[in-house]
């Protein structure tokens, strides 16, 4: 549990000049031992009080976090949940479903170990960060299923990350997809950035699709394959919002098979991941998609009697997060995954979907299906340079292996020897 900072700490965090202990104006650092007489001590104390008074009289440009504490997610009361919604609305980057209360609720229900760091000024809640605690390290709630995270706070709020972590008994915060305000984030803590992709459909998804067809041959030629699939398999039709839990289980199983075929870590290995997906999908769909609260949505493309492709994602207020697309490899000749994407886009405007967010990761298909590129940051907030150096060295080795000429063969060997290599990032 955190405690309120002292008056001196409060002054330090409110004044940029006095924000770190090494720059804090103190009599002992301004004067030599021979100068520390009673008169000089009194004079300097008066001067510092005068500085403090001037700072207190200045109009506040920033909200000031003066205390921090960590509680279990299930202890977040109704007023705090309402405050979350208010703070979330202050930054457009927080519109993704990963910042919704419903996403964190589902993660906590599936795992039972989500905590939330509360950041306050006196009794006023200024920021919240949902996490899992691994030793003394904090990681984003949802682990690597979480494609966008940050402290939920207004953009004009000042935050001393190391102070906040220390108040909660934590040493560091690992992040892999930080979005939104990062002004208070030291460049030493950021290891790099990754591109993130989205399709801004606006109010005319058909026009958006036409634009993609002009720019990308793969998208333009897909309709020929879809017509061939229809001739050979039967009528092609999309069920945008399928509520069948058995088909969701089938989609997850297809995805797991795909991971194994391509020598990628099976993200659905831990039980909690499948339970989280099930809980989100089970939420009621009694609201129009254009203004619905966040829930899971399964889209199914059929050809005749066959299910040829599915997508499981999250929908909230007209924004669709494109999370887990998968297709039946028996029908790969028809490129059913692309057929599914085009069918979803065609139906989007009629259903109130204005944006399809594909998240971070630079897979080639995302470039062909989107028109907007942003970036997310990855790194580690930690006061220990040795800890950061070790992490960067480890990541450098991984990046080198990814660029190796025989990387596919190396992946195959690695997965054969250690099929769950990397599982720690989703446990």
Automatic annotation (TrEMBL):
InterPro entries: Acyl_CoA_acyltransferase, BioF2-like_GNAT_dom. Residues 221-367 form the BioF2-like acetyltransferase domain. Pfam families: Acetyltransf_6. This is BioF2-like acetyltransferase domain-containing protein.
């Amino acid at each position: 549990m955190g405690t309120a900072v002292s008056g001196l700490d409060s002054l330090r965090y409110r004044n940029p000049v006095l924000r770190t202990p090494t720059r804090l104006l103190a009599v002992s650092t301004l004067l030599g031992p021979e100068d520390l007489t009673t008169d000089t001590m009194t004079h300097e104390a008066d001067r510092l009080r005068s500085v403090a008074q001037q700072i207190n009289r200045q109009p506040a440009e920033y909200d000031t976090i003066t205390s921090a504490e960590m509680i279990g997610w299930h202890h977040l009361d109704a007023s705090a949940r309402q405050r979350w919604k208010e703070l979330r609305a202050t930054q457009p980057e927080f519109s993704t479903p990963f910042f919704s209360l419903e996403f964190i609720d589902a993660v906590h229900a599936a795992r039972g170990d989500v905590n939330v760091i509360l950041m306050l000024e006196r009794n006023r809640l200024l920021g919240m960060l949902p996490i899992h605690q691994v030793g003394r390290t904090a990681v984003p709630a949802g682990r690597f299923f979480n494609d966008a995270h940050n402290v939920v706070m207004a953009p004009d709020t000042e935050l001393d990350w190391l102070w906040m972590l220390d108040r909660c008994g934590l040493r560091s915060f690992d992040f892999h997809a930080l979005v939104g305000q990062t002004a208070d984030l030291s460049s030493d803590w950021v290891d790099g950035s990754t591109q993130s992709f989205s399709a801004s459909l606006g109010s005319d998804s058909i026009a958006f699709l036409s634009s993609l067809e002009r720019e990308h041959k793969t998208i333009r030629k897909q309709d020929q394959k879809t017509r061939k699939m229809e001739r050979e398999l039967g009528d092609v039709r999309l069920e945008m919002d399928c509520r069948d839990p058995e088909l969701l289980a089938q989609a997850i199983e297809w995805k797991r098979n795909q991971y194994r075929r391509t020598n990628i870590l099976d993200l659905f290995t831990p039980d909690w991941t499948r339970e989280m997906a099930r809980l989100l999908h089970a939420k009621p769909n009694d609201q129009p998609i254009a203004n619905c609260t966040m829930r899971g949505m399964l889209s199914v493309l059929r050809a005749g009697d066959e299910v040829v492709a599915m997508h499981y994602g999250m929908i909230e207020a007209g924004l669709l997060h494109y999370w887990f697309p998968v297709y039946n490899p028996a029908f790969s000749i028809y490129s059913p995954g692309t057929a599914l994407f085009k069918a979803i886009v065609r139906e989007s405007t009629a259903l109130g979907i204005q944006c399809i967010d594909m998240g971070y990761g630079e897979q080639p298909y995302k470039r062909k299906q989107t028109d907007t590129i942003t970036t997310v940051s990855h790194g580690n907030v930690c006061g220990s340079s040795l800890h950061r150096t070790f992490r960067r060295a480890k990541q450098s080795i991984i990046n080198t292996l990814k660029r190796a000429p025989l990387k596919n063969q190396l992946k195959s060997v690695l997965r054969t020897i250690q099929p769950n290599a990397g599982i720690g990032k989703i446990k």
